[in-house]
Amino acid sequence: MKWSELSDNWCPVARTLSVVGDRWTLLILRDAYLGKSKFEEFAESSGMTRHILAERLKRLVEEGVLERRLYSSAPKRYDYVLTEKGEELRPALRIMKDWGKKHMPVRREAKA
Amino acid sequence: MKWSELSDNWCPVARTLSVVGDRWTLLILRDAYLGKSKFEEFAESSGMTRHILAERLKRLVEEGVLERRLYSSAPKRYDYVLTEKGEELRPALRIMKDWGKKHMPVRREAKA
DNA sequence: TTCCCTGCGTTTTGTTTTGGAACTTATGGC
DNA sequence: GCCATAAGTTCCAAAACAAAACGCAGGGAA
């Protein structure tokens, strides 16, 4: 089965994962919950490539998790802010934060 | 930055995602929470290929999320059961289930 | 004892996604 | 004009994935 077919799965967990269950997407949400909203902020903070970041942001907007907002009209610049739908996933990230603190100690030097 | 370098990130969310933040892994945990434990059960239920399933199970065991358990000695057969560490991620999946029910309605016919 | 069945993977062969880095576009300041 | 900034886009090689066939160790029936 292909991942792209998951959005119509009978299981609500699977449908949720069809939006956020890939590499990097939840890291974008983490940054959004920390108040970041700009492309460059996400790019620097998460360490993902601009290529993938652009693609993920596009999909999160399509899915209504983020909203693309014009924040400067000249030059035209957009940023990305959480919708109510996006906010409602915050508790899941909080659990992952606690779990990581408890179960995933840092082994070597952190880089980013 | 490569995904594989995430396990030593300063952020606990990132470290958590280095274990469960890829395609399919959380779907394995979903099945585990539903009481499944056998290779064939995971394979059929999730729809992922056996190739990837084997690789993910191996990593979840290495990370201490699942435990590989001999459940039949002749022929030798193993299954996979949740550790306490694995159990503690269950609330995150519960949130995703609720989120999916609320925000991700099924659009077409489900297949699996 | 030959043959098929079950359960748990591994191998093989293409396709898709990702990583890294350079390039583009529009504007503002000096 | 010339450099800087912000938000992407494009290109190519490398890694991950999908699908299907294969392997292996018994078990049970004929």
Fold and architecture overview:
The structure is a homodimer of 112-residue chains. Chain A has 112 residues and is an alpha+beta fold. Helix content of chain A is 51%, strand content 13%. Chain A has helices at 12-20, 25-33, 39-46, 50-62, 84-87, 90-103, and strands at 66-73, 76-82. Chain A has a two-stranded antiparallel ribbon with strand order 1-2. In chain A, strand 1 (66-73) and strand 2 form a beta hairpin. In chain A, helix 2 (25-33) crosses helix 3. The mean pLDDT of chain A is 94. Chains A and B meet through helix 1, helix 2 and helix 6 of A and helix 1, helix 2 and helix 6 of B. The structure holds a DNA duplex (30 and 30 nucleotides).
The biggest sheet of chain A amounts to: 2 strands, antiparallel
Secondary-structure element string of chain A: HHHHEEHH
Q: Which class do the helix and strand fractions of chain A yield?
A: alpha+beta
**Please, what is the oligomeric state?**
homodimer
| Mean pLDDT value of chain A | 94
Detail the poorly predicted runs of chain A.
Answer: none
Percentage of residues in helical conformation of chain A: 40-55%
Q: Determine the N-to-C terminus distance of chain A.
A: 34 Å
Shape estimate of chain A: globular
Individual helix count of chain A:
6
Radius of gyration of chain A: 15 Å
Count of strand segments of chain A = 2
Largest interface: A-B, 52 and 52 residues
Strand order of the largest sheet of chain A: 1-2
User: Approximately how much beta-strand content do the residues of chain A carry?
Assistant: 5-15%
